[in-house]
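ingest -> validate -> predict -> emit
validate: passed (alphabet ok, no gaps, 211 aa)
predict: started
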Amino acid sequence: MASFLSNLKYVAWTALAVAALFLIYFAVVEARIPFDDSRFWEAALRWGHVLVGIMWIGHLYYFNFTQIPNAPKIPEEHRGPSIGKVIAPAALYWFRWGAMLTLITGLLLAWNQNYLIEALSLGALDQPSFAAPKTILIGIGMWLAIIMWFNVWFIIWPNQQKALNIANAYPDLDAAAKASAAKTAMLFSRTNTFLSAPMLVAMTGASTLFG
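emit:
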C-alpha cells in the first residue's frame, strides 16, 4: 500500500477509475439511467466540473493565501531556486489547465441542461418568463467564471512567464520588467480571489435557492 500511495500517478488514475465506476454503477444499475440519457451526462459533467474547479480554485487560494504572503519570509538565495524554478511553474500548470477545464465542463453542463444561451444573456432570452432570477444568478456566475478564466490565461499566465522566465522564454528581461510583470500577475490573481466568492454563491445558489 505504501508503494501505491507513494506514486501520485497510480493514486490519481485509480481514484478517477473508482469514481467512474461509482458513477456508472449508481446511474445505470441503481437509477436505471442509460448512457444516452442527458441525466447521465449531467451527472458526469457536474462531477468533472466540480473536480477540475477544485483544482483551479485550490491553486488560486494556494497562491494567494500561502505562497504570495509567505514567500518574502524565505531568504532570497533559497526562494528563487525552490519556488520560482520548481514549485511555481508546476502550480501554474495545474492552475491554468484547471481553469480551462472548469470553463469547458461548465459550458458543456449548461448546454446539456439547455440553459447556456439563456444564462449567458442573463435571462434576456428566457421563456416564458423574461429575466428569471435563477437564470440571472447562474448567468452572473458564468460570466464571473469567464472573466476569471480570461485573467488566468491572458494576464496572469503571460506575466508569470515573464516574471519567472518560465521555460527560458524571457532570458533578457531586466529586473524592473520582471517585477512589473510579477505585480500585474499578483493583482489579477487577487482580483480572481475576490471574484471567486460571489461566483461560487451564484453557481451553488442558482440550484439551491430556486430548485
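The chain has one domain: 50-210.
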